[in-house]
Amino acid sequence: MLKLFRKAARKVGLPPGTLVQVEEKKAEKVRISLIDYDEAQFQEKEVETVEECFPFKDKPSVTWINIDGVHQVEVIEKIGAHFGIHPLILEDIMHTVQRPKIEDFEDYIFVVVKMIYYDDKINDIEAEQLSIILGPNFVISFQEKEGDIFNPIRDRIRKAKGRIRKMKPDYLAHALLDTIVDHYFIVLEKLGEKIEGMEEELVTKPTPETLQSIHTLKRELIFLRKSIWPLREVISVLERGESSLIHKSTVIYLRDVYDHTIQVIDTVETFRDMVSGMLDIYLSSMSNKMNEVMKVLTIIATIFMPLTFLAGLYGMNFKHMPELELPWGYPGLLVLMIVVGLAMVAYFRNKKWL
Amino acid sequence: MLKLFRKAARKVGLPPGTLVQVEEKKAEKVRISLIDYDEAQFQEKEVETVEECFPFKDKPSVTWINIDGVHQVEVIEKIGAHFGIHPLILEDIMHTVQRPKIEDFEDYIFVVVKMIYYDDKINDIEAEQLSIILGPNFVISFQEKEGDIFNPIRDRIRKAKGRIRKMKPDYLAHALLDTIVDHYFIVLEKLGEKIEGMEEELVTKPTPETLQSIHTLKRELIFLRKSIWPLREVISVLERGESSLIHKSTVIYLRDVYDHTIQVIDTVETFRDMVSGMLDIYLSSMSNKMNEVMKVLTIIATIFMPLTFLAGLYGMNFKHMPELELPWGYPGLLVLMIVVGLAMVAYFRNKKWL
Amino acid sequence: MLKLFRKAARKVGLPPGTLVQVEEKKAEKVRISLIDYDEAQFQEKEVETVEECFPFKDKPSVTWINIDGVHQVEVIEKIGAHFGIHPLILEDIMHTVQRPKIEDFEDYIFVVVKMIYYDDKINDIEAEQLSIILGPNFVISFQEKEGDIFNPIRDRIRKAKGRIRKMKPDYLAHALLDTIVDHYFIVLEKLGEKIEGMEEELVTKPTPETLQSIHTLKRELIFLRKSIWPLREVISVLERGESSLIHKSTVIYLRDVYDHTIQVIDTVETFRDMVSGMLDIYLSSMSNKMNEVMKVLTIIATIFMPLTFLAGLYGMNFKHMPELELPWGYPGLLVLMIVVGLAMVAYFRNKKWL
Amino acid sequence: MLKLFRKAARKVGLPPGTLVQVEEKKAEKVRISLIDYDEAQFQEKEVETVEECFPFKDKPSVTWINIDGVHQVEVIEKIGAHFGIHPLILEDIMHTVQRPKIEDFEDYIFVVVKMIYYDDKINDIEAEQLSIILGPNFVISFQEKEGDIFNPIRDRIRKAKGRIRKMKPDYLAHALLDTIVDHYFIVLEKLGEKIEGMEEELVTKPTPETLQSIHTLKRELIFLRKSIWPLREVISVLERGESSLIHKSTVIYLRDVYDHTIQVIDTVETFRDMVSGMLDIYLSSMSNKMNEVMKVLTIIATIFMPLTFLAGLYGMNFKHMPELELPWGYPGLLVLMIVVGLAMVAYFRNKKWL
Amino acid sequence: MLKLFRKAARKVGLPPGTLVQVEEKKAEKVRISLIDYDEAQFQEKEVETVEECFPFKDKPSVTWINIDGVHQVEVIEKIGAHFGIHPLILEDIMHTVQRPKIEDFEDYIFVVVKMIYYDDKINDIEAEQLSIILGPNFVISFQEKEGDIFNPIRDRIRKAKGRIRKMKPDYLAHALLDTIVDHYFIVLEKLGEKIEGMEEELVTKPTPETLQSIHTLKRELIFLRKSIWPLREVISVLERGESSLIHKSTVIYLRDVYDHTIQVIDTVETFRDMVSGMLDIYLSSMSNKMNEVMKVLTIIATIFMPLTFLAGLYGMNFKHMPELELPWGYPGLLVLMIVVGLAMVAYFRNKKWL
User: Rounded CA gap, E141 and E173, in Å?
Assistant: First the structure.
């Protein structure tokens, strides 16, 4: 995750608005898909060149252009020129280390957020930048990589499920954001499972790896927090409905999404509280274990040191020392020693110290 | 409690407003009870089908429909259709993981809060979602499970105790919320007893279990805090009396409830301070105990190590070593060793290390 | 102090405004004293029945009715009825677990605060609820128990000291609040002495009891904080002088009281900082002591273990071992051992470990 | 410093505005000095009786009356009467435990702040209360003790350095406050040196005294914080220039002082962060040292315990035990033991444990 | 870095606006470079005397005067006199310990910020004060030392890259601030690498030096925080565009810079969270190591103490003690001892304790 904090340093000295793809290429080719719909009709196609999308700009129906891959400067530039997007915004789209934010340019709204998913392979949270441009009758979305996260929305458009076909592009933008927020819940569910697992581990047998896991979890929560708080602001601005691009009928749906982000924030904060509580528990149980170890040492030393001293004392040459019968002679002694040694080893195995 | 953080992940991809019961069924059957009253008359019945409630919608008297169980989609849908409730609200009612909130739709107010009670069987706090719809002359309340928490209110209506029969449905909604907040006090009392018990335990004999209890308590307080702060907001919105559904005469009663939530918050925060103080005490007393253990070890080692060395040194073959009389010979030695050994064991038993 | 958090749970299910004395009786009898004064005249009497106070309601002079004991429902009810106090306020007066607050009912102002004093017998802070009703020409004050805290004010009225006889009842209410805040300073002085004593103890010889005292102090400060912050709000509302019952000439005196509450808050926060610093010191000095203990152990063990091994090694049967002269024989050995043993014991006594 | 928290408790029960000197006398005699100036003329004198100042009240030139010592009730009372100062303000002047504050009485402004200096003798921060009354053409300043802190300002007036002689009394008041804030920087410089010294000490050899110093520093910073935050408020109120006594040309100078207080606050907060970091370092290095000590002990014990056991085992009577040549006999053994013992002592001296 | 907190104390007692260079000289000579440009023409020169710049004041083209070195009072004074800068501002320019701030004097805006770079030689962050005066058609920038940080901007002007030549001086001021903020990213990248390195170190082998590095990092972050927060305020004031010197077309570029400062702040806060997490990890792993050490000690002691006692016990003179064959005699014993000793040393080497 740390890499996210570094990329911003690459462009020092360039004039603002210069389009440079700071990332190594992420997808081989930029993939552009286009969906155009209104209540009556529906049209979907994979376009080869960006110019194919241009005629849709002025059609009254809702047009959704989704672009997977933001590394080709010429594609971004052409779209920017045709749809009248400010160069600084084009720069933000390509420079995929933005903090979630919203900018309202009256004739279009620019929204950039973080798409979060849990990558089971690397067992960590992955983030991707999603930029949305909401115009009067179009939505353009830019994803860093190809992904199928929006397929359920495409399906709802195709099958005219729910009210999406009857609504304006602001509802489509809402649907995209709703999906993003829903994915936070999936990640939280994953983290919740991790926390539960760790709590059990803490009680049964805490190891240094537990500490490592707590630390990782803490960092994941810091990361989530860093994305979700500004996302909340973004949605709060939209939900206030001050732009003419947001229709009154969509506001209640945006408020619903807003409530969900609040719930995400609540859960993240609760998780943080719980994780920091786990660290306390860990440290205390370390301290407990140490205490136990020291008690064993002290008991053994306190019993055997004086005895050994006494044995040593009597080992000197006293006069008239009567001789005692040694119970079973040396064999007995050796057997006794082996028994004592094995008992000790068994004791420590039992305590999981060996 | 953790399960609460997870359920929200189940609905990803569905259009908003889709009614799906996310929980496993909680009550076998949905139970609907209806009370209709004004100052002059009173009527109470258990209804079989939801349609029986519909005629009451337009009666001038106050109608209270209480629904136990929110898992049957068709019941919720029918009520929603008849009383004109927005689909998103119906979704919130069925999706029992809401954060407490209030939404004002001019012709009705929707309130969702957490009902808290202490389950002695599992020795933990249980929470249940309560949704309230306050209309111009009706109150509809949705509980997750059957419960008798509102029986005192029913009783007050039946017996015309206090001013409830003379007031409008906003007073009934206030009475429901008042009961909810009162139950927070009962839970706090329980936690207060726990804290008191634990403080004593901390002083007399702290064990690793004490730490576990502190941790549990901390989580319970985090949980309470998470429910009570938004509840405060909800009541604060109502108490401002901006909706035409809230009458001026009810506002002072809502302010009373508001004061109670502030008191709950105050107490929760105080408990949090106390519990985190207990953790400090616990760690310090661990450290104290370790110190004591180490002192015993050090004293014993420091006295007997030099002595043993001296005994060993003198055990070598010195010239002209005179022989001393051994006081009571080997029997004396053995008795002495046994006495010393037993004294040590008694000492550690006394310190509760054994 | 914990008991304060629990009493609120007793009334669940009753309609609001029901008067029930939740506390066990505190004073055997309710004691009512009445003072009536203006610049020209002064009258003071102990009244037997509450009805004796009623004629004073409409006299133009200032009337101060002080009621010690709030457990008799009928007394509170009669006053409420005669002076036109809202039932919820009467309930607040009797239910002595209120959070400090102010409510402005235009024709009277209701103020409830915590009176704090340090009880030397139990060596802890005690709190009592004081309710004040400020009307256009009367002040009614309710104390939980008999007390002489307001005697200096009575004296100022009797002897016409200062400007109290020339002022309206708002000045009298101010004088009551001023006295309350002054008592916070006395408690703070007490705590300041405790802290100073503890700081010395921390430096000279910290014991587990020191930790207990730090913890107690911390709780006392949490408690003070819980009472003084809302008291500040109460006085701040009064000092804004928005009510017609507060005259302009009194506002500057209320600001003076307000400044004092700020000073109390400042001091409480400083004490909290200091106490939490003391906990750090305590833990560090524990750690220091442990370190010292371990060093002694390590030094002793590191010197004598190799020596003992060498002595043991040479104790074996070497060939041609020449015999050395033992300086003073066994008596010398025994004397040497006793000297070493006593020196060690003296050393640990000196370190206060024994 | 703790004494500051206690003095306020002395006056309980007196009517507000009663002048009582709460402190033991601080200066033997009250010393009054007077400077009167405008752009053209300048006059300075030491006055014997307070009445000598009175004629200056209505002169158009700027008059600065500086009073060292606030313990003589009659002096304060006379000034109060002549210059029309409210009794509560006179009380605040004499009661030298005020929190910095400002009060605007239209015809004069009252400011009370803390003058801070570092007393090298007691090696601690000392504070003194400075009260300023700014009238339309006079400034009266009250210091607790005689001091020469304002001599540079007197000098600027005498020599007409800078613009002070051309400006109104508000500029003089600004100059006094500026001097006060400058003295905070001197104290901060002192603390900065302490911190630097301590950081070095922490790295080279931390001792329990280091902990004590950290604690003292922490308390000094708490103390500074307590004085500087309200001072910031005071200057912020002045700098807003809402009073007619503050001229527009002075506002920019007040803003300059305001910037300085912000810098003081910044530095105090940074120091606090650093000091609390030092505590962490201290605890960690304690823990490190303990670790090292324990390792030495464990290594020694782990090597010699088995060896000693083996030596003891072979010390028993085995059959046909061949006799070995002892290298240099007992002298060799004794020399070896002494060498080992001295080496160990040297090792611990090197580690600074002895 | 600490030195920054001290310099402010040097000027106590001087009237405000007195120009004194508080720092030891930083550059041998003051270096003044001048660039004058508009869309059509471009002129650049190194000036010898400050007077050469004066004619440019009233030219309609944009003039950028950059001054390296602020230690020569006469240079600063001459510029101040000619361009009409307030003496307090000149003082701020020379007194290079300012907190970042902005002051708007209608006909010019004064901005002072911290320029941050990472000095690889001393392996620490270095800061330098940059003061900017933005007039209607000029920008004057003051750097403490000569530096080439602004060369890319000079290049953009020379080669007419981007829109800089077409814009007003406010765009130039924006470009300077943009460069400053970009350098924060470079420093953050450096710190990010440090953190990553340290995280690995923490996992593989934490040493006391790690602790020292964590502490240094913490201080660097405190330092960054102290500069970036007020920088954010500065840019936020500019971006609001309330001054007539800021043109509407520049505001969007300033908002871009503002977004970058937010990103810097975000990253600094995240780093702080991570670093404080690392301290926890460090302490825990210390505790873990101690635990391990103690376990080894306890296991060894618990096994060998009883055995040694038994060996000592049997070493006494028992009757009829049969003699056992010693396996390989003393050579065997010595070999066994050496093997055991070496095995132990190898074990501790393996654990990195030796």
Answer: 9
Note whether C274 contacts D: Cβ–Cβ < 8 A: yes
Q: Say whether B318 and C341 touch across the interface (CB within 8 A).
A: no
Interface with chain B: mutation pick from A150, A321, A325, A347, highest number of B CBs within 10 Å: A321
| Cα separation, D65 vs D33, whole angstroms | 6
Please give the mean pLDDT across all residues of chain D: 84
Min Cα separation D219/chain C (Å): 7
Tokens (6 digits) for D165? 């002689």
> What is the H or E stretch that residue D109 is in?
strand D109-119
Whether chain B has a CB inside 8 Å of the CB on A167: the answer is: no
Shortest Cα distance, chain B CAs vs residue C247, angstroms: 26
Split at pLDDT 50, 70, 90, the class of A72 is: confident
pLDDT at A7: 47
* pLDDT of A165: 92
Distances (CA, A) of D293 to C293, C297, D300, E114: 10, 9, 11, 46
- Per residue in D178-236, pLDDT tens? 999 999 999 999 999 999 888 888 877 777 788 888 888 988 998 899 899 999 999 99
Pairwise CA distance, residues B174 & D315, whole Å: 90
Cβ contact C239:C170 at 8 Å: no
Share the mean pLDDT of chain E.
84
In this predicted model, which residue has the larger pLDDT, E8 or A140?
A: A140
Parallel/antiparallel/unpaired status of strands A31-37 and A62-68: antiparallel
- Tell me, yes or no, if the pTM score tops 0.90: no
Give pLDDT, residue E7. 47
Q: Do B162 and C18 touch (CB under 8 A)?
A: yes
Q: Do residue C300 and residue B297 have CB atoms under 8 angstroms apart?
A: no
**CA B332, CA D73: separation in Å to the nearest integer?**
87
CB E316 within 8 A of CB D315: no
Chain E CB within 8 Å of residue D192 CB: yes
The shortest C-alpha distance from C160 to chain D (Å) reads: 11
Q: Residue D75 pLDDT > 50, yes or no?
A: yes
Residues C228, C232, C233: CA angle, nearest 5 degrees: 125
For residue E31, give the nearest of E68, E64, E77, E73 by alpha carbon. E68
Please state whether beta strands C138-143 and C124-134 pair in parallel, antiparallel, or not at all (unpaired): antiparallel
pLDDT above 90 (res B284): no
Query: B350 is written with which tokens?
Result: 């006394």
Nearest residue on chain E to A226, alpha-carbon basis: E266
Q: Report, in angstroms and rounded to the nearest whole number, the Rg of chain C calculated over CA atoms.
A: 33
Q: What does the pLDDT look like over B88-146, one tens digit per residue? A: 999 999 888 888 999 999 899 999 999 998 888 888 888 999 999 999 999 999 998 88
Chains near C with 3+ CB pairs less than 8 A apart are: B, D
Are residues B215 and B138 in contact, defined by beta-carbon separation less than 8 angstroms?
no
Helix axes E169-204, E248-314, angle to 10 degrees: 10
| Three-state secondary structure call for residue D328 | coil
Residues A178-198 have a mean pLDDT of 91
DSSP state of C328: S
Output DSSP code: residue B58. G
Who among C16, C323, C329 is closest to B317 (CB)?
C323
CA distance A203 to A197: 10
Residue range E108-131, pLDDT digits in tens: 999 999 999 888 888 888 899 999
Predicted local confidence at residue E80, as pLDDT: 92
List the single range of C260-269, E91-100, E225-234, E299-308 with lowest mean pLDDT: E299-308
Listing DSSP states for E172-192 in one string gives HHHHHHHHHHHHHHHHHHHHH
Q: Residues C161-180, buried b or exposed e (16+ Cβ, 10 A)?
A: ebbbbebbbbbbbbbbbbbb
